Amino acid sequence: MKPLSEVKPHIRAAHMYNYRGAPEEQRRRGYSYAFHLFTEGHGHMIVNEQVYPVASGSLIFVRPGEGHYFVPAPEDTMDACNIYCDLWCVPQPKQPTFAYQWDDYDPRWLTEQMPCPELDALPTSMSLRPYPHLIELIKQTLAAFNRSGKYTAQAVSACFYSWILQWHEAGSLTQTADYRITRILEQMEAYPEQRFSVDYWCSECGLEKSQFYRLFKQETGMSPKEYALQARMKKAAVLLMESRQSITEIALMLGYDSIHYFSNQFSSVYGISPSSYRMGKGYQKLDRWS
């Protein structure tokens, strides 16, 4: 028996991908370990014939040889950070990562698997919303993998090693997501320009203020005000990059009376002014790969 601390991650691939329901997304098996952290969209994944709902913050862990499908909701797509890796060995050069047709699946290509009760106990599906540091560490792993350097492989391996140990700790303490808070989060993300009061949210989910604050913090790791700001600034960042609207127009669209206040809040979240962000200074393509 091996403890999880003895894994030696070798990252085969790490990238963002937009799942649209294409044929190659709907019936395949992998030869490596796969971790899918969904950042946008809704739908579900089927892993070994079990259905797992997918929303922003959902993590799906697919073990070697498990059949799986990606199924976006109607009229929707799903963005995910994907990491494909070996945990106990370094694969042979040009070793395949998938069999896209199950008839082509060849068990000889499976990565080495060791008896590890801690790894076996990790869930197939888990929300990382209460653990923003784990979401950030996944993104850092992707960023490190896509840089070139003398020690890139070692840096990526170390980053993911830290993530999987911390995920194990979080997974051993996790609780089932509260559907009342999940519904509020979906509304915050869908309508970030709205300025709903805490009283409104409490009436929507039928909770007292103290209960609402406690459950919200438990689910997201932040306060309702902080989460709403993050959602609002995320939409602002998309509009800055994708639209020709002026910064003043974007601020008004998101419910700001003062462009100065909008700029200050944007800078507090992204560490850069809206105008600099639009010009590409400090802009990371990590969240836009497909």
Features:
single chain, 290 residues, alpha+beta, Jelly Rolls, Arc Repressor Mutant, subunit A, 5-stranded antiparallel beta sheet, 10 helices, 10 strands, 40% helix, 19% strand, globular, Tscrpt_reg_AraC-type_HTH, transcription regulation, AraC family transcriptional regulator
- Please give the alpha-carbon distance between the first and last residues: 39 Å
Give helix % range.
40-55%
The CATH class assignment of the largest domain is Mainly Beta
Give average pLDDT, whole number: 89
The shape is: globular
Largest beta-sheet details: 5 strands, antiparallel
CATH architecture of the largest domain: Sandwich
Number of strands: 10
- What proportion of the residues form beta strands (DSSP E)? 15-25%
Q: Number of helix segments?
A: 10
**Domain module count:** 2
User: Poorly predicted ranges (pLDDT <50, ≥5 residues)?
Assistant: 282-290
CATH superfamily of the largest domain: Regulatory protein AraC
Question: What is the CATH topology of the largest domain?
Answer: Jelly Rolls
The secondary-structure class comes to: alpha+beta
| SSE succession | EEEEEEEEEHEHHHHHHHHH
Query: In angstroms, what is the radius of gyration?
Result: 20 Å
Question: Strand arrangement, largest sheet?
Answer: 1-8-3-6-10
